[in-house]
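Exercise 7. Given the components listed, write out the predicted structure of the assembled complex. Treat all entries as one system.
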Amino acid sequence: MMKITAGLGHVDDYPAYIHAGADEVFCGYVPDSWYEKYGMDSPLNRREVRYAHAQIGGRNELLVLRSMIDDLGAPAILTMNALSYLPEQYPIITDIVGQCFSDGFSEFIVADPALLYYLNSQIPDIRVHLSGESFTMNPEALSLFDFPTVKRIIFHRHLSVSEIRKCILSAKHCSEFEAFVLNERCHFHGALCASVHCDELSPICRLPYLLGSLSSDASWSTRKMDQDPEVFSSTGCGLCALYDLDHSGITHLKIVGRGNSPENMIRDIQMVKKATTCCEYASSREDFQKAVKSILQYPCSNNCYYSQDKKRHD
Amino acid sequence: MLISSACICALVHTSNGLLECSPEDLSILGFTFKIPFPWKQQILSSKSIELHFYFPKERVSLFLDPHEYTLQIEKQNAYNMLIRLETSSSSYRQHAHELILQITQYTDMRSHMDMAEISSHLVGYPSDAESVFASSIREQMDNWLSAIHPDASWNQISANTALSFMNPALLNAYLHLPAQIFPEPYSSFSHPLMQHIKVLYFGSMICPHLVPDADILLRAFRKALCENLHPVLTLPPVTPGNFDRITDIIGHLLGNLPSRQEISINDWGLLSYIQANFPDAEIELGPLLNRVPRDVRIAYLHRPAACSSLHADFWIHALNEMGIRRASAQCHEQTETPLDLPFSLFLPFYHMNSALQCTLRNAVLFGNRGAESDNTQNCTFPCKSYAFLYPSFLHMIGKYNTLWGFDGNSLSNGSYVQSLMGNSCDRIVLQLF
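Answer.
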């Protein structure tokens, strides 16, 4: 059965997520030494906010998390997934990773190919989850960074299931493959996004705009998607594609959610767990989709991931 | 008040070393923090505590000696103890009060205001201006281009100029023009850059559908070579569904031209393909692979000069081993440390973000920019007829599948451009749409 990996924003939520059905969590850890030197100007991972609980806390909470993992068994993956770093930061990150290793954390999500390269040369025992934002969106790109340290490839949700399958078939060292299933909201591709995501400014994709004609002086508003994060699957859902994802070789399903409320995350984990169970027993895609629609307690949001494959099947 | 780890840290000095702890429930009397069981004795007999308060514009450090605080176990569960620290330190109270106030204010703003208003309060962002648009795309572009007045310092710049033909209509027009004549908007663009045109960029750095067919590219390359101009093939990020078309184009082009052609790549997979099949090709790392924050509003955050992995020696060495000898940067209104390897500087439009499921096509075809769509299906090129218009003060536009910023200063202020060029920039790529 495909495993569920859920975004963890606060260490206290770990037991509840695991009991809800998550097999793994991923979380950000930013040591004080990083904040001391760089503040929010140069984030260590993709959560650049000060006021929301988007990271677990200091080393004390990392150690507490370790004790929870030792008890409940579901691993935690730490995110070091900023798109790029200052030259001086690569050895600093290596030291942070080394400290995390000594605290029992050896798997990290990485999006910067330079960081992957650096860590591969400095810490051969590291296990990297190559982020969908690493700009590796085809088999040939993955082959360039197919180091023995890369344990898992995370696919961006803008790839179709058939494209994901092609990438999986070409992977040599890697044995785990992860796809987004819920809550990744953005229309734009994370690897191609240079916007700031901070407390002070909204992301560029949220700025007001009009659609304008190039040949006349007309311009008009277009419909904005209704995205209420409180509503299940409102910000995007790939549940109907689980059967195809499973058969394409996907081993892990990602529920985005760092910064979301724990109640919503638990709800989402439980829904995905039910859906993966349906997938386990379904004999066909149609069988699965019928089953999953019948067990979901919430109306379909129609914000469907992987719908390009759906259209082909239809 | 529950508080995030990015606001405050408590470094507890113990006989066993330092433990970095995140305060949780913060008040002016003290705070709680979790500790794992093995650290209990060490923490309870701590030697001192160093507090770091992080405010938006400064960090404040405060040392507490053991006589200034008390520690008590408040509760425990299966995984940790919750320790409560209480202190009567007036400095602590002052800073804690300030932090709590700040967080409370931010939380209140989030519940009562939209993000534009919050930005206005926090960083002086002109939220009212978000409702002011140019009357049309055409007017917006005219306003930008008419405000360009190159100053005398432009005469000191001696790099070659490249013209970008990302717009397929420009390329088609170029193919039908006499030698050394370029299509609008380049032909009427009066600027010192136009005196040094030596390079032409054909193709697209953002969208596989905008890469012309191989026969058109071949004609363009041959025409450029006849005119003693240096053509560069520029290629976008490519998903598996589009990969074969792009590699067919590369194969056809390089198979019919002298071997040492230059290709500007924005995809690691295409790099791998070209290295394996066309080892003589000269490769430029395209702008999308030089990733720094580029945001039209970044000046409001007062961040230091941008710097990317391309400034790291080990990475430049690795890229050299991959056959990359030159890179790209973009003018984007923020100071950026110049690269140390030969590079091209793109201006005045700079890339901010792109969609693989084209947001422009989705808006035109489905009335909804966020619709899920197939990025491999044949495209009808709505980008020929439409673009996203943004509030005038932002200087940005949604053209093709990309949001672009416009750095008008880059075409007026030569000294600014020189500061971005450093010693290694030998080419300025003029990107007009």
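Discussion: Chain A has a mean pLDDT of 90. DSSP finds eleven helices and eleven strands in chain A.
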